[in-house]
Write the structure tokens for this entry.
Amino acid sequence: MSAGQEKTTEARPHRWQMVIDLDRCTGCEACVVACHAENNIRISGAQEAAEGRAINWIRIERYWEGEYPDVKAKFMPVLCQQCADAPCEPVCPVYASYHTPDGLNAQVYNRCIGVRYCGNNCPYTARQFNWFDPHWDPPLQEQLNPDVTVRQNGIMEKCTFCVQRIRQGKEQAEREGRPVRDGDITPACVQSCPSTALVFGDGNDPDSQVAQMSKSRRGFHLLESLGTHPAITYLKRLDE
Amino acid sequence: MGASHGSRYIRTTGIVLIHIFHIFHGRRHMNRSGWKSFGILLLAGTAALVVGLLYSKGSADSAAQDRQPIPFSHQFHAGQLKLDCVFCHRSAHQSPTAGVPSLKLCLGCHQNMDAKKAGIQTLLDHWNEQRPVSWVRLQRLPDFVYFTHERHLAHGLQCTTCHGQVEHMSGTPRAATLEMGWCVSCHQQRGASRDCLTCHK
């Protein structure tokens, strides 16, 4: 690709962002299931999960408030916050963890040597280590996504904002000779959310839904005081 | 490629071994421990040579693996008959993979030809038994690499840039290592993206 051609379709760098409306989240975990299916995430049994070896790129954190019978369950989907100033990146000794021009915290699996510094430095525990080789009981191996690497034993993995879908969206836009439009790209979790609590888009596009919603007065970032500048904005519940 | 990689390796290891031998041989009075350490070094050197050879063989495919069930010749089809690459590899312009032609496409020409050659008879046998030909895949990229033919062709690359002068090759050998350094050098020359996630998934 010549630099000139790149400019016609990629005039403005993207900054992929997400907005999670906590008032809409019902804690159904459809996003978790969709993420597992899309990203070839290994299936851990109850035993491994109990030992803290399970892998989830997105998880639903559940909080109980109040005393029985006046109990309220509150849910919060937590995934990699794709920080602009990511604590995971500078600690990697082999540059497997790095920042893409689109503002993603990427993990290059073939470069990773599994020292786990990145995972230890992540305040959101969004990175997980593969303690075992992946295994799928037949015929489940048939549903593996060919666009996503099957990670092996000994390396770190994390949410990619479904980079394969981002790549696909960009390629489709280039094929049609137009810039990427808002809504072209939806990560698996966003696509599967029945209450549209998750919204994804280009934060550098001022007209995108995600850019508009992140300006909301309800907006906040996880562990904002750490100065990681996450790409994910949470919207507070309305009853708070 | 495996061969050049291997021979370079043998040469360097050989030179190192000769030097070790000279260092120890140069001693006027080689005592017992001297011979012992010489032996250990020699053993270690041989072990390194064997491991290195195995590694260099494994890192790149060689033409020796080109054992197709039918002795198909690119030289004949692309060279003499001047068939366009995408006549058979039809999905190269539309998809990540170039695609292997269906048996039906082969039969498009071959059903009206006499099957004197053994290879063509095998092809017709496959067709009569409605059994696909199990071609051996030679161009394979690791699972962690994302590569698409479509984008490379869309940006004006020719098939021969990566696959070599296939019309002069009798088999289907690999013309390039398909290793990362080789990819990156071309991306660098052409000003293509060198972001890791362009090619790694």
